[in-house]
Design goal:
The protein is of the alpha/beta class. Helices cover 32% and strands 29% of the residues.
């Protein structure tokens, strides 16, 4: 098969490398950054293309020559890239955290007979898939809770946070209103609200805050109470709230010395060098998923827990591993003909195929990413 990977960054690069290791398919990686492309081509058998992926017409033309596309572009390019690939008639695995509703493209995907799996990273992605699976294991599900975060092993002042994603995508978590469900009704709260301290066994103390990670689960799961919260080290939230409320995350331009500048662009330029994970720096991904409800007349709590660390052997950061390898296993699901459903598929829709989750979990386990399952009567 001919596979096109769009994006060679800290997540897209490891995805391309993981697919190339199969030594079965022809892999092409496209990105505007020559350094990222050279780093990949020096180690793996693949083809690189230096291209501006913001050009939708070019992406559509390019995608038409491949059997499957894996999209790892920044979130602000995600929706237009997804549309361009669907217009090209090519199946797509999309890990981008785009602000738009990808279900808007469902009709187009069905018309083009394209199977698209969207939001298929770690969270959203595995968080959706595992939550939906746990719901199917109960006679009645009452409550879904998702806690997830990527954290550095070493806490460095002032932000005590490191990121593998683009700076704009990181800031998006702090500005996009959080949607969740309480007693059957959708509730919208600002991000960075409802901060609570938590002690995670095997890790330590963190703080959680409301974030907009439920996404498609709000329309696909009929559970009265659902919430998703992001994890950071204690104290991080207050610093982000100060920046946000001061206007550093605003997208409306301001004029300074005759120059029109978006505050968010300046913030990203200054902030990202301080929070970008550097080569060899250890990061940890923590995710807790719990679903409570009734089974055989008993109150039950079913859970999945993930604590994953940077892999020194492959030199791939944990957040890139947990996000990217979920996407590459989903790609293999399509490549091996184990899933085909023309239209837009949210991660949780994979539960319709009973072989999909075991296939993905098995592939992740082979790569050292292990989700621990527990259940208890409450």
């Amino acid at each position: 098969m001919r596979i096109l990977v769009l994006g060679a960054g800290l997540v897209g690069g490891p995805m391309a490398a993981d697919l190339a290791k199969d030594n079965i398919h022809t892999i092409t990686v496209a990105d505007i950054d020559p350094t990222a492309l050279d780093r990949l081509s020096a180690k793996y058998k693949l083809t690189t293309l230096r291209l501006d992926l913001s050009d939708s017409k070019m992406v559509r033309k390019l995608a038409s020559g491949y059997d499957i596309v894996v999209s790892a572009v920044p979130g602000f390019l995600g929706h237009q890239t997804l549309k361009a690939v669907i217009e090209a008639g090519t199946p797509i695995i999309d890990i981008t955290f785009a602000p738009e509703d990808f279900m808007e493209l469902d009709t187009l995907a069905k018309e083009k007979n394209v199977t698209a799996i969207c939001d298929i990273g770690v969270a959203p992605g595995m968080s959706n898939l595992l939550s939906a699976y746990l719901v199917t294991q109960l006679d009645r599900a009452d409550d879904v809770k998702i806690y997830v975060g990527g954290l550095p092993s070493v806490r460095s002042w002032p932000y005590e946070y490191k990121a593998v994603f683009s700076p704009i995508d990181v800031i998006e978590e702090y500005t996009r209103p959080a949607r969740f469900r309480v007693n059957g009704k959708e509730v919208v709260m600002p991000a960075l609200t409802d901060v609570e301290l938590m002690d995670i066994e095997g890790f330590g103390q963190v703080e959680s805050f409301n974030s907009d990670g439920l996404r498609s689960l709000l329309s696909t799961l009929d559970v009265p109470n659902m919430i998703e919260k992001t994890l950071r080290y204690p104290g991080h939230v207050e610093k982000m709230r100060i920046l946000r409320e001061t206007g550093f995350f605003n997208t409306t331009p301001v004029v300074i010395n005759g120059q029109s500048i978006r505050p968010i662009d300046v913030t990203a330029k200054l902030l990202f060098p301080m929070i970008k994970l550097t080569e060899g720096e250890v990061d940890i991904t923590v995710m807790l998923i719990s679903v409570c409800g009734m089974r055989n007349g008993k109150n039950m709590k079913l859970s999945y827990t993930l604590i994953d660390k940077y892999d020194p052997e492959t030199q791939v950061h944990s957040m890139a591993r947990t996000t990217g390898y979920t996407g590459t296993m989903a790609a293999r699901l399509l490549l091996e003909g184990k899933f085909k459903n023309p239209g837009i598929n949210a991660p949780e829709m994979l539960v319709q195929n009973p072989d999909a989750l075991p296939f993905i979990l098995s592939g992740l386990k082979e790569r050292g990413i292990i989700y621990k399952y527990t259940e208890e009567e409450i």
